[in-house]
Every structure is written in structure tokens, then in C-alpha cells.
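Components:
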Amino acid sequence: MPELPEVQTTVKDLEKKIIGLRIIDVWTDAPRLIKRPSFETFKKQIKGAKIEKISRRGKNILIHLNPKSKTQKSKLILLIHQKLTGHLLYGSWIMKEGSWTPAQKGPLEERVNQYIHLLFFLNNGKMLALSDLRKFAKVILGPKEEIENLAELKNLGIEPLDRKFTFEKFKEIIQQTPSKRKIKQVLMDQTIISGIGNIYSDEILWEAKIHPFKLSYKLNNQELKAIYQAIKKILTKAIKLRGTSISDFRDPRGREGKYTEIRSVYRREGEPCYRCGSKIKKVKIGGRSAYFCPKCQKT
DNA sequence: ATGACGTCCTGCCTGC
DNA sequence: TGCAGGCAGGACGTCA
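Structure:
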């Protein structure tokens, strides 16, 4: 599932490919992915728009557009949240027997093609595709100010790789959250820190040697410091390795992320801990799975 | 107000 | 063998 490192990889790759291009048409077979406006309006507003910028906020991708229409004075933002199985892909496809098939041979010759549900046709002959097996992805188009004021962006917590995210700030945030929740749940709460999901919360807690069940308000200074440093370290390393493809993340060209190979705990149940050799355990926290080393992660 | 749980969706895996 | 049922999971809505 795309978390901060995967979304960052996607955004940085797309930046090199699609800035300056125009969207000349749109196709979908799953209009429900577009939460607003209606697909009809969506298509009308986006046709002819020029892609000016692409950025990330939490796990959201923001594509900044300059509309063609003179009646639309405001700039637009296309917000895409890939949720669990969404992929933004860049390439060219042709419709063959009811499904989109890559026009050229390459890494895109994979399952992801089968699940393309939204396509933007660009003025260089290429396409930007949203592939999504489970159709959970969320797409919203609207004027810049409106999108920036959406609750889903406004309520997001601090960016963990921002310079403003200092240890003092982290400590303050955690201590301001008088929550009886487990640290894993707090790390995954997007309104506290944005961008961390199930994979990296497990990886961070293993790195920090903290049990996922540990209650966040009970963490002492030393433990908080360990978690803080692990957040920075793990996310930075994952970005460098272009993300994790344990479920099915692919970059815009269909390539896998390499963090998968060096992950410590996520989906490694029964396999040895790289620190102490104990078998990695899997437990449930609020309906979600959590992987950890029962020996070196302390409650 | 806080936290727990159900919901969306579909491929894959398990077990009878 | 075949098929029903469970599981995976981010974020939001609902409920206690």
C-alpha cells in the first residue's frame, strides 16, 4: 500500500515526465472513483488543462493544473489518494479485448494494467493511468483554494521529513495527545503525523525496539527519542530504495520498490528477527495486523 | 469526546 | 474438486 515513501517516489518520478503537458481527454470505467465533481463536469473542467506542478501532502498526490477555459479563472488541483492498491502509471496503452494493454514492451507488462480504471490522455501521446484493483482510490478535482481547505488535507498532521518536525515538536505532539491508544495506532493516525501507514509503523517500532502495544502516553523520553529517530531513518531509507512492493506498489513505470528486500518485520511472521533471531510475531491491533519481534521490542 | 467497529472492493488463500 | 468464507487494508462514517 502506498505510504509516504511510495507516494514520494511516484510524485518525484511523475514530476520529471508530465510537467508542462496538457490533458487532452479523460476515460474511466469506474466513475465512482471520482468523488467530485460528477465525471461529466470533471471531464469538461480538466480537458485542455496544463499540468504545472505536482506535489505530495501526507499520502495525497496533488496535481496542480492551469485550466484552459477562460471562464475558469481559478487554478485547479487534482487530488489523488491511492489508498490500498492504487497506482499512478505513466506510459501508453491501447484498448485490446476490453482491457488496456501496454503499447510497448517493458516493466508495465504486468497485472497492474488489468486494473486501469482512469486514464488521462496527454498532448505528447502518452497517458497517465490510475490502476486500482480494489477501487478504493479517491480522486477529487476543484479550485486550488477549495482543495487546500478540504478537511482531508487541513486535518493532516505534521510532515515527518519536514525540518519543522524536530524531536521537541514530536514530543509535544505525542504528549498533547492524551490518548490511551497504542503507539502503533498513534503513528498511523494521519492527523498526528501524516504519511505513516501499516508497513512503516511496524518497521519504525522494530527499529526503535518498542512494542506496538505500548501505550503512547507511557513512553518515556528515551523511548520517544528512539521512535523519533527511527521515523526519520526508516522513511529516508525507504525513499532512497523507492518504496516497498510487499503488497503491490509499482512506480510510474511499473517497477518495484527495493525496501521490500530489507524490511525487518512487515509480513515476516515466523521468520527470524535480524537482531536476536526470535521468530517474528503477528498480532491484531484494531482490525489491522502488526508484526514485531516479541523479544527485542519492549512494552 | 474518545475509541471501537463497520464499510467500501476484489483477488487470493484456506478448509471443508 | 469446488466453492464458501475469511482476509487484506486507509480513511471515513457511525455508534456507544
